[in-house]
Amino acid sequence: MANTLHPAKVLLLAVHFAQHADIDSLSILTSTHTTIIHDEILLRILLTHLPETERPAAYVGFLQKLVDHSFEPCQLTGLDTSPVNSIDDNEAVKRATKLHLLPLVCRNPPEIAQGDALSRFLFLRIHQMNEETGMLAQLLDLLLPFGRHSPGIHKWAMSTVIPYVRKGLQYRAGTSLAYSLIEFEKLPDHQAVDFLLCPVDSRAQPRENVDHDLRSIIGPWVYDTDRWENSSEDGESSRVFCPGWHKVCEWFLSQATLSWSTAVQAIERWGGPEDVEFGHGIALDLPAAHRYYLRQTYATTVLACVYGVQEATLESLRRLHSILMNLRVYLGLNGGTMSLEETMKVLPGLSSTDIAVFHNDRVATYMRNDLLGQNNPLTRPSEGATNLLLALTRSAYILTLFGSPSSPRRVGDLTFLHDERDQRSEISKLLRTIAIQASKENDDFLLKAREFLLWLRDWGHGTAGKPTAGAATAGALGMLSKEYVEAEFLKLLLSRERYSLARNLYDGGGPVRLPVEVVQDSVYESALSAFDNATNPNRSRGGLKRCDEIIHALPKTVGLSLPGTKRIIALLKATHALSDYRLVLKQGEPFSPVVLRVHSDPIFIIEKVLEQNPRAYTRLQEFLEMGMNMVRAGLPSYRKLDSPTLLTSDSELNLAAYIAERRITAMCIEAALKEDDFETAYSYVASRLSMQSPENSDTSPWPVVDEWSWKAALQAGQYIRTERSQQPTHLGTASGNLEIRHLEQRIECLATALRVAPTSQLQEILKSFRRCEEQLDSAIKEEAANELALGEEAKVDNLPGAFDQVNVEQQYPVRNMTASVAAQQTEEAPMSLFDLSRATARAAQRNFTAIPSLQSITRGADANNNEHEGGSLSRIRKRDQLREAATGTLVSGVGWLIGANVGQNKEETS
After folding, report:
1. 760-779 tens-digit pLDDT
2. What is the pLDDT of residues 307-364, one digit of tens each?
3. Which burial class, exposed, middle or buried, applies to 611 when counting CB atoms under 10 A from its CB (0-12, 13-18, 19+)?
4. Domain spans of the chain?
5. Phi/psi at 241 (5° precision)
6. Of 13, 108, 450, 566, whose Cβ has the fewest other Cβ atoms within 10 Å?
7. pTM, 2 dp
8. DSSP letters of 218-234?
């Protein structure tokens, strides 16, 4: 009966078998009614009525028989025709016309749209299954057996369906994809790449198995030639471009910046665009031009990623170095398997061609902009570009190793911007870290560090026996001269007390040839640095001890006779002298040596010492030596002497020494007076301030007015004894009356002030001088009156050998009497031996010398006495005459009694 079925019933029965997924019955029906159920009708019935949930394995064999036309003849006696038995032929025709089978029509891709019915069926069935069930694994079960059926199905399966399914299978069960297959096919290339490379779990950092995505998803997807563009410019040979692959390259670069480990891991594990996993025994291929494009752009991307990585650790640099070495092998250049540490033992240099890009003015711009551009010399695949980036990576390794974490990009900025200040700052950081690490290492470590520093300057280009043109700028520290690097390293050795190594390298006939001036300056700077960092002013401890050792570290080059050496030694002596005293310049801060060196007025520190240390003023000679050392050290002796250079000439040094001596002496005098030690102050005035001032000397480089000596002398002359005043330890030849002795000493101090003071101050000093004279005259008369009264009471006249007493006016003539008249009256007045001794002792202490300025003032004041005195204004005064008489005529008499100087020349009194 089955053989006599109406054609309409045959169609209805085929639909029934398809709806119930009865593939065996459908196969029997098809094999016996091939003229009614032809291939396209059958595929339309399956497309329309076969359940999407039916596993492809159930009907793939049927489809293969359909394609191969390999249905075997079979008996239809076992075929169940009951579904159509109750339907008459007319009804069957009506129902057949209303089947509305889906057409086998698709617009894209063209290879499938124009292909056979099975290709179109597979294309439509795959989309149908994806939209209705979402069972991704079954898509490949249906499609892969027909992968070689037609070129269109082959390419579509390999470059679209397989990447989509593999991406979808990464998601957890029950998670729907962002796009269906048909939506995915319509996505622009950049959105498709974002979808294929987006992480399934964004929390996982770094992403695992990114290389798998590149190999099994991106790789097949890129091999679709429909995603490529061909362009030609001005008749040139056509150029290929793949927007989707360009997006992949941009993804690499963004990952290098945001998540360096993800990008580096992908590059390490992926072999490049040739490393594609199609699977299932089938594959795609690209034209040679396409493969060359992928190869070159991938190499560019790897170089760009290395520039983009901002991580600055030893681990990241090791991995970047390994990537670059593998890239050289990938490009067919001289590569190797040496690790970064092994390479740094050799320190390979750059050739002249490697640094050609260095002379490009826009090289720094290239590193920041358009790294993926074809015209960027830094990322264009070449031996020079890879060698340059290797040099940057190795430089970053050295910087990071020595405490300045750097990425290749940071080293590129340091190198390409040619900023000398930045490079000086960078080498300073390196040296500080090397100095810290050197304390735990031997000399081999320091020698290797020096080799690294020199390599950073020129990347081995200048030390490889090759042309030196441009070598000064071909390095991470290329703006620094070799002498500068060597000098800084010498300072490092000296600061870490590696004096033996410093001598072996830099002293005299060492292997490093540096100008003598450079070595000397480095030693002096290191010594002063140790001085500035010292906290104890004692020369035998801490920083000052190191300073002293540094000065003596290189005896062949830095001798003790050099001016710079002498200055530092003097500075050490001056500072060490302060260690014996208590000194606090700021409350709560002890004195540190650097204060002395940077102070605008170092002599002022001595004044602070005098204030904070009782009776320190008695050590005047020690302070004078301290001041001389300050001068010898080149420190300013007076704030107003703002010389831009060190003291070089003898006249400059003498003037500075004179100023220091006068200032220090004046400070000690003032300190003594504050502590009521007038005797010491007077001795300093008499012995130290009577020297001639050089202020009018033609050899003085600066106009100097001694404003310290006359003030100190005036202050001493104005001092009035109190109960707190210290008593003299011995009187010598002075008056036994302490008041008279004090007044005489004051007069002598005031006379010294008159002698050294500027003209504008003489009037004020002269007033004090006259008041003191009046006080002295009054005291002398009072003493004479007291002695007369005592003589009357003791009846001295009755003593054997005594002379008659004279009145006070006769014994002590008036003070305005001339020296000759006073001498004549003194000779005529009879005196006892003891009176004569006392008078002589008093006269011997009146140690006035000629005071021209005082004579000129006195000449104006005593104009009315010219006739009485005649030409005696040029003569010395009474107390000077008494001194001369006492020391001249009493030498053979009672001089032994009063302690007179028996060797004094009488000619000096004339």
Report:
1. 889 999 999 999 999 999 98
2. 999 999 999 999 999 999 999 999 998 877 789 999 999 888 877 666 666 666 788 8
3. middle
4. 2-97, 187-309, 740-909
5. -155, 135
6. 108
7. 0.73
8. IHHHHT-GGG-EEE-ST
